[in-house]
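Hi P.,

Sorry for the delay on this. The queue was packed all week, but I finally got your sequence through. Input first:
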Amino acid sequence: VRFRRREQRTRMRRRYLSCFGCADYKLCKKVSAILKSIGELRERSEAIKTDGGSIQVTCREIPIKYVVGNTTMMEQVLEFLSEEEERGIIGVYGPGGVGKTTLMQSINNELITKGHQYDVLIWVQMSREFGECTIQQAVGARLGLSWDEKETGENRALKIYRALRQKRFLLLLDDVWEEIDLEKTGVPRPDRENKCKVMFTTRSIALCNNMGAEYKLRVEFLEKKHAWELFCSKVWRKDLLESSSIRRLAEIIVSKCGGLPLALITLGGAMAHRETEEEWIHASEVLTRFPAEMKGMNYVFALLKFSYDNL
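Then the structure:
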């Protein structure tokens, strides 16, 4: 970057020197200034000015892990987000570790890559402790709004509302833990007139109902084929899995994951450096008798326990 800027300055100086002593010096200087401005604008995200600040039209692509088996769900969600669909709120639910966040990230990236009809796309990673406050902070930052730390939530909501009321937006809320009052945060509620959309992920179908989701989508566990593909992608050792004895043990391990992506990713990573048949036998035995002792599985069980307790 520094080299490119140095080269730009050198070329600029050359233009100035070539213009010295000629009647067109002022014009040359003006053109150079315009070129410099164009270069600076290209480095920034395109923006639209509003009453409350500047709305960034483009949104960043989110790096995601290896994705398998969500093509059908992707198609369903993208159809919901189309211009023809009048329903405004979609709730995506399922147990922890099943792939809700990955689906949401894939949707975000798909819209950015292939384009969309919204004026602004807003991604919010939710917080369990500060639901509505998290939304205000994230949306405010996305819209380029500013406020004092002591400013009330009502004032912040008013600024957000003024910035969004004439815009067609898509709000993506990942990992919602409790009911969110959109109006209280300043986000206009999606309807047929404004053609805006809100999509959120949660572990509870009851929360989907409380949030007024007009369309509810359950993220299912992976089918056997996709579960094996995801596990193999994390092991990274194709030569290992070509061994008939180790492949048989790997299939046992995959079957015990029950199609849960987080478990498959965790165990695949744990087995990536196990090169002997004895190690794979030991791993399958531990997984059968004391699964919590496998590296990373405590976190998996904590997520499953939460989902089970909330059934």
